[in-house]
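Most newcomers find our protein records easier to grasp once they have seen one. Sequence and backbone structure share a record, each on its own labelled line. To make this concrete, we reproduce a full record directly below:
***
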Amino acid sequence: MLNSRAQRPEVSGQQYAVVLVNEEQLSQLMKRPGMRQVNSRVLAQDAYSRYEKLKRRITAAAIVMLVLVAGGLAWIFVPQPAMASMFDWSKPPAIPTLYTGASFSVTIASADSADAANVAASRVRGLGLPAFTRRSPGKYQVFQAMVGPFASLDEAEKTQRNLGGLGYRAARIFVDESLRTTPRGEQPLVDASAANPGVLLLGAPDRVSLVFEMQSEPRQVNSSRPDGTTLQIDAGPMVAPAQPQHWSAPDGVHLLHTVSIETLSAQGALNYVRAKIALPEFAKANVRTEGRRVYVDLTWPLDGENARAPRRMTVIQEGSRVGAAAATSESASAAATPGPAAAGEAERYRAEIEPIHKRVREVRPFYLSAVQSGSPDVYAAIDQTFASLETSISAMKVPPSEVFQHQLLLQATQAARQGLAASFPGDRLAHAQKTLVLFDGAMAAPVVVAEP
């Protein structure tokens, strides 16, 4: 009978156990001291790592050298303003932009030649008013004589009334809003302190006007041009010193660059405001005052168009007084061209007025001597001459084309008599000089001439 247990095979000979140990365990079994690696960098397996590290260092050094060389060349050859604009830290702080507004001017005459408009403006300028000329835009261009510009409608209306008293009853108000909507800087323009003047930039035909509104009406206003690109204005005295301020011109304005103000101390603890205006060398500047306001009119240089020969002048027709809402920029209508009969009347008038002009020229030197003599008898003698001239002027028949100059001549004669009166309280010499300016305007060449 077979045994149900499986028979185990028998192996003859000796049997051995295999134990796997590493170097460290073998050293511990054999009690050998541990080995220390003297230089790991010389191992063959680190050669590639050394190569990669060296390559990275060489690449970094090359990049640094390239940047240094490029920067040096840019510093030498690139203009400094362009270089400075590349870095925000090099830019100066933002300068606030000048406030802008609408301007108000008074149109006194329109002509189809620049020379005729210049004559009209020169006469009004002789009266002490800021007159200028402009060429209207459009296909059918006309040349206009204007007075201004002003920062307020009140100033323009006052000038309009004064011109009406001098014979310019057809004077119209012209509104210019070319700079009114110009973007302004975000920073406040004028400090809250009452000591700082207000500064405003106005647009006007063929010009811009910078307006300084002072704390009070300045007794002295001096202007100078230290160099071709700087206009300096000293105004005062002021009650309190002004804080230093600085502004830049709006985009698109080329007749000035920057404006700054500071306080100038004078003897007696008086404070003056000094304004410095940076402007291009070609810009023309004129300074005038209207109460508390100091105006700086900046214009382009004159071109050769004003040299053309004069032709017929068209005078604006008379109309109603223009208010703030009704004031428009082109509210001028032309009068009809004078016919042969009107031209004949004008020639007759000029022949009759010429002896009076001649007599005024003869009396001029005696008139100046009389007002400086201080003698009532001399005053009375010269006054008789002007009284006779006044009677002759008042009795003349005047054609419409000569009304303005005739009235101006009559007003000059009456002003001369006023300065010769025994009760006259003012400066007789200064009054006489102003009166002679009126005579010059009244006796100038006629504005309206017939076309050839």
The longest helix spans residues 340-373. The radius of gyration is 45 Å.
